[in-house]
Amino acid sequence: MADSAHEVVVTDIKIPFWSMVVLMVKWALAAIPAVVILIVIAGATSAVMGALFGGAFNWQWGMGRMM
């Protein structure tokens, strides 16, 4: 295989307005499940970290109640 690289410069993309609108609506709808999945992952990670290290930082709240 030849190792020759070709440069490509895109100067203009012609796309009808309504096709762009439909594309952006599809992106927005596809982002909803992605955000839900990220929230679930963040919640699970937070729960695991809280279970592992939650007791290590609990003393701060207890000190405030004793005063």
Give a quick summary of the entry.
The protein contains 2 helices and no strands. With 67 residues, the protein is mainly α. The termini are far apart.
Structural account:
- The protein is an all-alpha fold and 67 residues long.
- The chain is built from 2 helices and no strands.
- It has helices spanning 17-53, 59-66.
- The protein is elongated.
- The chain starts with 16 loop residues before the first helix and ends with a helix.
- The mean pLDDT is 84.
- Uncertain segments are none
> Tell me about the biggest sheet?
none
Kindly report the average pLDDT value: 84
Which structural class fits the helix and strand makeup? mainly alpha
**Percentage beta strand:** under 5%
Shape label: elongated
The SSE order reads HH
Termini Cα gap: 76 Å
What does the radius of gyration come to? 25 Å
What is the β-strand count?
0
Q: How much helix is in the residues? A: 55-70%
Helices, by number, come to: 2
